[in-house]
Amino acid sequence: MTIDPEMLMAYADGELDDLAAKRVERAIEADPALAEQVRQHRLLTARVAASYARVAAAPVPGHLADMLRSNVVPLPTRERRRHWATGLAMAASLAIGLVVGRGLLPASDSGFDPRISGELAQALDTQLASVQPAGAAARVGLSFRARDGRYCRSYEQAEAAGIACREDDGWTQRHWIAVPRQDTQYRQAGANGIAAAAQAMMAGEPLDAAGERAAREAGWRAE
Amino acid sequence: MRGFETDLLALLPRLRRFALSLSRDAADADDLCQASLERALKARAQWRPGTRLDSWMYRIMRNIWIDEGRARTRRAKVLAPEEAGEQAGYAGDAAIEAQVAMGDVARAMASLPDEQREAVALVLVEGLAYKEAAEVLDVPMGTLTSRLVRGRQALMRELGEAA
After folding, report:
1. Of A153, A176, A207, B50, which sits with the fewest C-beta atoms within 10 Å of its C-beta?
2. Which one of the record's GO molecular function terms can you name (chain B) (predicted)?
3. How much is the average pLDDT of B144-158?
């Protein structure tokens, strides 16, 4: 019987079932030229694969890897905050494809300082959602009480968005997402992610304008 | 959901390799990779867990190459094969150096018609089974094997006895 080139190739690649492979082997025994062709097929595969293996071994450009590195950065949580993990997972699943610049990522969770200072802290202390000054460092979104009684506020900046909660010693990041300025689609995903995280953290309803004002008067203290 | 990005990150070196097989140009390959990742992240709901993520990505990448690559393919054809081979070296990062080092094999691959090159890339380079490769390319098995055997014969001729 004759062995067509496709069948011989499939034999060389181990693609034939036992029965067909047996037939090819019998033909090869009778014809050394077929054996040589099988050898050539396997040599070619090895050579081509080896050449391209170098491409796969080369370092991946940072901008491609960054597209896949964490979108929502989970911030260090204390034991008592475990129940927020659900919110984080939701936020992570909603904020699809958000790019976090490598320079902005915490080196490790333990090495990341979640305390907020400077302009953002001041905005969180003083700014009301109903009165957002033009040119402010941050735009405050929702203010609410978390389940542990602390006041938390979501905010958005030019390149980032997050949720901060008022601890005894100041504002602390609970969620943080880098938001590329130009990409409205990513911005929307980021806003959705933060909203979902806030929803999961919240005890009851978000504060209304009066509640927000009262909380500010109280210095955002949990009491 | 985090696993999806992690799995893609692990696949990234292979995706770049397939992109280079398709595009024959290191800069185009990384553009193609970026476009494929963007599409994958948007379409992640369409990926069924438990099925092969690599095949899914190869398919996405190849579709983008076909949809958006026409202009670049035309441009590539204007160049003589040896110019196209030279051009691969222009930007000088590690991947491109690797491609230059690939030398004869890259040139021989670049000389194949698209249909044969993608079949060879999926089976010989990416290590897919015939059935998986046929699915990525959306062709019957017989079509896949016929393209594959013609591509290999051309490569053997091109690379000579050393193959």
Report:
1. B50
2. sigma factor activity
3. 96
This model of the complex carries an ipTM of 0.80
Q: Does B30 touch chain A (CB under 8 A)?
A: yes
Sign of CA dihedral A157, A160, A161, A163: negative
Task: Please check the confidence at residue B89 and state whether its pLDDT lies above 60.
Answer: no
Between A81 and A156, the higher pLDDT residue: A156
Q: Which positions in chain A have a beta carbon within 8 angstroms of at least one beta carbon in chain B? A: 5-6, 9-10, 13, 15, 40-41, 43-45, 47-49, 51-52, 54-61, 63-65, 67-71, 89, 92-93, 96-97
Are the C-beta atoms of B141 and B149 separated by less than 8 Å?
no
Give the range of the structural domain holding residue A81, as residue numbers without chain letter: 62-217
- Same domain for A69 and A130, yes or no, is yes
How does DSSP assign A90-141, residue by residue?
HHHHHSTT----GGGS-SSTTT---B--HHHHHHHHH-BTTB--TT-S-EEE
Q: Do A96 and A53 share a structural domain?
A: no
Nearest 5°: the CA angle A106, B37, B23 is 130
**Residue A48 and residue A99 in one domain:** no
Domain assignment present for residue A222? The answer is no
Number of domains in chain A: 2
Distance from CA of B54 to the nearest CA of A (A): 14
Give yes or no for residue B84 having a pLDDT over 60.
Answer: no
**Residue A216's pLDDT band (cuts 50, 70, 90):** very high
Q: Which of B2, B21, B33 sits opposite A52 (nearest CB)?
A: B21
Contact assignment for A59 to B148 by CB distance below 8 Å:
no
Is residue A223 one of the residues assigned to a domain? no
